[in-house]
Amino acid sequence: MTRECALLLPRVCAALADPRQPGSDDTCLEKLLDWFQELTLFDSTVQLVQDNPCLTEFITSVLALPEPSPSILSFTLRLAGILAASENRFQHLQQEKLLARLFGRDGPPNSAVWEDASVRSGWVQGVHNMMHHQPALHLLCSGGGIDVIFTLQGDPSLFVASAASQLLVHMLTLSVESETTKPLSTKDCDWPACAQMIIKRIEDSLQSSSASHIEQSLKLLTSLFGSCRATWTEVLWLGVAKQIESFLTEETVQVQHMLANLLLNMAWSPVFRDTEGSFWALVTSALEHLTPVQAGPLAVGILRLYKCPQDVRIQALTVLLQPMDCILRAASQPLEYAGLLDESVSDPVTVESLLSSRSSCANLLCQTLAHLEQLLSLSRLPVDLPYTSLLRSLMTILQFCNGFLSPASPLGSTISRILINCFRVQRSALDVLAALSERKGDDTLIGSLFDLLLAYLESPNTSPTVLKKTFQATSKWLVRLQELSCSNSQGQQTEKILEDVFLVLQKRLCSPCWEVRDSSLEFLTVLIKCLRDQDEFRQSLLSSEVPRLTENLLEDPESYVRASAVTAVGHLAFITYFAPESPVVGNQYNKENTVAKLQEILSTDPEGFPRRAVISIFIKWLRQGCTGQLEDTEQFVSRVIQTVEHDLDWEVRLGGLELIEVFCSQTICQLGLPQCPYAPVSSAVTSSIHWNESLQVFCRAKLFSFLFRSLCDCDKPVGQRACDVLLGLKSNFYPVSTLEGSQGTGDSAVGHGIAWLQRTLRQGSLAQNFPTDGSNGVDFQDPENMMLALGAVELEELHDELNRSSDHVEKSPQSLLQDILATVGTIEENEADCY
Amino acid sequence: FFQYCLSGHPTLPCNVLKFKSTTIMLDCGLDMTSTLNFLPLPLVQSPRLSKLPGWVLKDGSTFLDKELKECSGHVFVDSVPEFCLPETELLDLSTVDVILISNYHCMMALPYITEYTGFTGTVYATEPTVQIGRLLMEELVNSIERVPKAQSASMWKNKEVQRLLPAPLKDAVEVSMWRKCYTMPEVNAALSKIQLVGYSQKIELFGAVQVTPLSSGYALGSSNWIIQSHYEKVSYVSGSSLLTTHPQPMDQASLKNSDVLILTGLTQIPTANPDGMVGEFCSNLAMTVRNGGNVLVPCYPSGVIYDLLECLYQYIDSAGLSNVPFYFISPVANSSLEFSQIFAEWLCHNKQTKVYLPEPPFPHAELIQTNKLKHYPSIHGDFSNDFKQPCVVFTGHPSLRFGDVVHFMELWGKSSLNTVIFTEPDFSYLDALAPYQPLAMKCVYCPIDTRLNFIQVSKLLKEVQPLHVVCPEQYTQPPPTQSHRTDLMIDCQPPPMSYRRAEVLTLPYKRRYEKIEIMPELADSLVPLEIKPGISLATVSAMLHTKDNKHVLQLPPKPPQPPASKKRKRVSDDVPECKPLKPLLSGSIPVDQFVQTLEKHGFSDVKVEDTAKGHIVLLQEAETLIQIEEDSTHIICDNDEPLRVKLRDLVLKFLQKF
Fold this sequence. Notes:
The complex is a heterodimer.
Chain A: H1 3-17, H2 26-41, H3 47-51, H4 53-64, H5 70-83, H6 87-94, H7 98-103, H8 117-130, H9 134-142, H10 145-152, H11 158-179, H12 193-207, H13 211-227, H14 232-249, H15 256-268, H16 270-273, H17 278-289, H18 292-303, H19 310-331, H20 349-355, H21 358-376, H22 387-402, H23 410-419, H24 423-436, H25 446-458, H26 464-487, H27 491-509, H28 514-531, H29 535-542, H30 546-552, H31 559-576, H32 591-604, H33 608-623, H34 630-644, H35 650-671, H36 681-686, H37 693-700, H38 703-710, H39 716-733, H40 749-763, H41 783-792, H42 795-803, H43 813-834
Helix pairs in contact in A: 1-4, 1-43, 2-5, 2-43, 4-5, 5-8, 8-11, 10-11, 11-12, 11-13, 12-13, 12-14, 13-15, 15-17, 15-18, 17-18, 17-19, 18-19, 18-21, 19-21, 19-22, 19-23, 21-24, 22-23, 22-24, 24-26, 25-26, 25-27, 26-27, 26-28, 27-29, 28-31, 31-33, 32-33, 33-35, 34-35, 35-37, 35-39, 39-42, 40-41
Chain B: E1 2-5, E2 15-19, E3 22-26, H1 47-50, E4 68-71, E5 74-77, E6 98-100, H2 110-116, E7 122-126, H3 127-145, H4 159-162, H5 184-191, E8 194-197, E9 203-205, E10 209-215, E11 223-228, E12 233-238, E13 260-264, H6 274-290, E14 295-298, H7 304-318, E15 326-329, H8 333-342, H9 349-355, H10 364-369, E16 373-376, H11 382-386, E17 392-395, H12 405-412, E18 419-422, H13 429-433, E19 442-445, H14 454-464, E20 468-472, E21 497-499, E22 503-506, E23 516-518, H15 520-525, E24 529-532, E25 535-537, E26 543-547, E27 550-554, E28 585-586, H16 591-600, E29 606-610, E30 614-619, E31 624-629, E32 633-636, H17 641-653, E33 656-657
Parallel strand pairs in B: 3-6, 6-7, 7-8, 12-13, 13-20, 14-17, 14-18, 15-16, 15-17, 18-19, 20-21, 23-27
Antiparallel strand pairs in B: 1-2, 1-22, 2-3, 4-5, 9-10, 10-11, 11-12, 24-25, 26-27, 28-33, 29-30, 30-31, 31-32
Helix pairs in contact in B: 2-5, 3-5
């Protein structure tokens, strides 16, 4: 702690303990606690409390208050816990029995302020903070604290309840791990005293008839097994296993929904996972007995495990796929499809009844679909999914949803009635469909899949959100289709599908609903990104009306749509103007027009999104070398920079800097650095001839005025980026060995100019104006000037300055203490006024 | 209660309700789908149509070739279009007391009813219904009369001949009943019989029944009707909408507690969501115009067109269509656009508030002002001077058989750049297009029907909970083309009663009560006796006086004075003489106490048996049986009158008299 802080702290403590003061700002108190946490983290000595007796006094005076404010009491409890985290300080504080008074049974739990949830929460956190050594453990166990914590597990405040549960887990672990001398075994359950108390409580409540008590204990065990992987957890488990197993079949106590999480956490723990037999038998039994909705999360969790017995995995897969299987069976004639599952392993009655009820059908399907998507998103799946049947089932769901399917069974008719126009299920199914495109399966269904996707894209009843998902799935499957048509002769089918897609896209681009126009453009962009190298794709796209309609949308009244149109047109250009064969003939828009149009948007669009989109596209073009020869590119970059440097949107300005960065690195690559990088550049500085050609290009393109001005930008990311770019340039033009020689700026006019520049840059974003017209003696287009400036300006220092967070002054503990005192000060002043 | 079903068309209903002593016709819709069997009436000579070959029978007979023409495999009647009227034989329509109209589409058969059947009653409708209904009729008459057709075909209607014709002519129903269009004088005469009503206005019919129109949310002035007496309530729901479009929202609350709810006029395209269709309409319109094509929208001059114009108002700038002219061509275009702006009280809340700003409630006023929307009575005259392409034309008739639309179909049909967009759901677009085939222009079907769909109906029925639902048979089964869509039918408990054309339905409701008033003097004379807490009874002797379906209990006439002279017969002689009344009994007989009493009176061998309805008390020695039941007591003994009287008196002791 600094001397200044040590001086301020007593006054702060006195102020906080003063009941006449209004409750302090909670965030200040939190910051104060953070600070103490930092101070005590690596220091277990008593020095802090000894050097600052005001801390102990503060706790004493708060305890002496007849009616402390809840927030101050809560703060005190947590502070005391932090201080008592080390055994030395614990003993120090206990000299005056402070901790016993704070955390004992007769402390706050026995007072009126206990009603306030913040006090209860402070108490639990205080205990948790303190709970790092045996004395703390004993204090709690002997003072009746355990009872309080167990009661708090059922606290009406969820935060308190959850913190109490966590605390118990922590205490149990601490007790077992710090107080056990020999490893525990099942035969000899010689638990330490504190652990014994906790375990006894857990066992008792598991045997009680109160569902809430059982739930609390299950929660506790769940988090214990989730956080602690020590072997003693198995000993604990064996004591409660029978009881917990009985909950699976118990009908009087409804706690089944808690079991999936418990078992899942256990499955991740090597203690249980690696055992033979009993644990996995329990999991199998749970998969059988829990309802499909309860068992779903367990099943998907099991399927993500690499270490798991094969039969359990198959059982989990059965649970997960059963609703999909049911759908398939409900929709088809008996024996038409084999279904997803072998009938012998599945008992479809429960799932069927859930699917035929309006209230549960969509829920079960959405949950199942979400789980499937989760599984499909894993790069390595420990289990093989029946992709073809899954695809068929998904298609069936989607057909139910749009009413295209006439089901053959009564169950099918019921499901169909429930699912028609159910957007939730449509969205989830389309998500899985998209994820499924990346898995290899039987491709015979692809034709009918596209019929379905096109029907969704075509239908006016498709809601905009469902449409967006359909676009996503379609783009993924189009990529798959292209891969297929490359590998076999399905060219005609692909061509027809692409034609249909563009026909419907054409219509969607004219939709009166802007969200639809927007997602149509995004879809087009994705397609171009993925498929622009495919001839079939390019031909279908260019022979449709889509490119023209897309260009029309550059003038859309909705800014998001304009932004998406800019991106789409930008990508379209890779096919139309930048492709070597450039097939567009007779289009009203040529390359120049398009570039001009985008530049117009960049300079005149009133909204930020389209302008950001333009600059991103320009960067993309530049990166891909689409902007032509160097001279053209130089002019292009220069024009763009002059447009964006005064843009009100900082992201656009940032984009401008990125453009410069790309341009600079490309230019330097093309032109090369000075012939002899190790030659002293000082000679080059003094000599007015051989200027580095790159530098001349940059000066001509007027990059430097923008770069240097950006250093003073009021938006920090811009300043940082500009600084990075300038540092990059500096390192190119002044290799390390030559840097020293660059410092001499002399006494000339240029020297004055550079001095002005340095002064101005030091002011940072507070610099009032930043003339770049040379009036201050710095010519930003003169290579000599710029070379000097690059050498002279302390860019590294500036870089550090910019990277420091803007509140680094305000964040200091001293400033925090002063803030607290300042609020107190006003009270004192007011008091003076009163008397 | 009876319902006579005169129309088979669920959205163009015509039902007659016999309710108490009144005969009420509910709507008189005109089924115009019959016109699809006729050739279009071109405004200018169409070489294509006039060159169509006559139809020849399979055996080569040509006697029908003047009446029937063949076009692309379809056969059409070459004559003035005719309409299929509601059933007129099912009951004598001259006995109809009143006609209740629910919206302007459901009154198109009115002149046929009021002018041809001897109808002498009154028609009730709201003002916008009448005014816009008049416009629709005017347009119809005008479209047909301005293209006079010399020839009138009737030979094909002969049953023997009709059998030989190809479908759909062969299957056309009741062709002998098809009639030519009415005339303007008939329209005027029919409309003069209408009495205007406002929402929630109560109209008494002969004292027996009260009818009330309620807002139905479907069109300007559209209404549902409540028909009720003191103890019965029938709701007639026809063409209602829960969507937020231009009309006042639907009044659902007043439909509650109905004994019978007659449900007609649901959406004709239950699978098409109107919002999606409007989107489809706009997209296709924009695509066509951007490609340099023209758009033709066959439509009615009022209704959905207001909403479409409003959507386009918002859409055209964003779609870059500001320079494309929109034309609205109808003999009543001007009146329709202007009428819509003056019926403020019939509009939805948003539009009503605009009137106070003051601003026109519909934005088409601004479209007209800025010259983006232009309207003309017909293609002749100013229109031909102003006409610029590409453009969008709204015009009638949606059947494509008459009206200016015929001209545009002929004009634009050959180019694939143009598009015809069908928005009215009343006609099958494929049938409408049949006489124009082969057709190069694009056809888009975006039926916009804002009427209730089945999900909304199911919610509505849950909300208002009628005891019984009556509906056309089409609503009780999935549509024939989508037999698996069991969600597209009415699902309620008890299942709805269905009806079809020319059927008489006995409504599933029995009258149980009738309200009778008691004159104050008579009421004063009553002496109620409380027999249960809260229930008092009194005997009433009075005279029931019934007039104008109102029933009143009056004091009974005074006992007749002894005739002053035998020669003169007095009026009061007619009144039946009042005999002194026996007292009425109430209460129940406690069996145990009754047995004790019997024993006290010397009956020693009393035996009691329990029966399903009460008890039997047996006096074995006296061979007597006393049956005590909830509402009767019988003493059965053989010819021992004194014993019977004695027992009777013992029974009476336990009962109250009044």
